[in-house]
Amino acid sequence: MKKIIFSILAISLFSCVSNQENQFMDIYQSELCDKYSLFVNNKDLNGILSLYTDDAVINGNAVDPIIGKEAIKSDFIKWFENADSIDHRATVISANVFGNKAFVYGSWKLSQISKDGKKSNLKGNWMNHSEKIGNSWKMKIDLWNDAEFYDLRDQNRDYISTQDKSMLPENVSPDVYTVLVDNDYVKVLDVKFKSGQSDNMHQHNVFTGYVVNGGKMLSTMPDGTTRTMELPNGMAVHRDFETIHQVKNIGDSDIHIILVEHKNIEPTSN
Hints:
Layout: H1 2-41, H2 45-49, E1 52-60, E2 66-67, H3 69-82, E3 83-98, E4 101-114, E5 119-133, E6 136-144, H4 147-153, H5 169-172, E7 177-182, E8 186-193, E9 202-204, E10 207-213, E11 215-220, E12 226-231, E13 236-239, E14 243-249, E15 255-262
Parallel strand pairs: 1-6
Antiparallel strand pairs: 1-2, 3-4, 4-5, 5-6, 7-8, 8-15, 9-14, 10-13, 10-15, 11-12, 11-14
């Protein structure tokens, strides 16, 4: 009987969480995705800026990140001035909500005619870290990729296939690393270290990370050298090289990080 009751409770809890995430995805689709497409298609600069926090960051493909609302404003102005017509669509695929913070993953499509008459049909994926400010969700970190960009870069190679699967963090330390999204372009990892917890030696490809809950970590390299890292809440980091290390939370607080590994960007030498 106890097993039956436990099973019913577990199923009910899972159903409740799933329903909450589905409801959030519907809200995010209408409040952010649909509005983003509407504002972009109508070249509504004030509208599109209203969807970002003041300290927002946009990073697409391998270009340098666009940091802050003024820089974001300049980037959208350039886009709108160079486009004669824009037809943009964005769709939510999955979401994870942590109170007033959320990590949302989806796809996008774009049909555009430039002022010079050039026609473009593009598509890709995006991942946003968003915050609820007042009654509205706003994008704090906006990451996106262009499928055509990666196709061109990968005509003669498939870099990710060469990675040693025995060194994948989710394989060697499944108690720390949970895969949220895994497709041809990115792998999104939910990383959680309790105070005093260590993972095992593992490998990362090129990645972008966001610190949800920060703390103090000790990183140990394969040659035994160590480095202490202070990770503040809200810190964003990008590494364009391979990383092989073992990490320990040496602080008093639990640490929570979201990592986005870019599968098709060839690493530089660190």
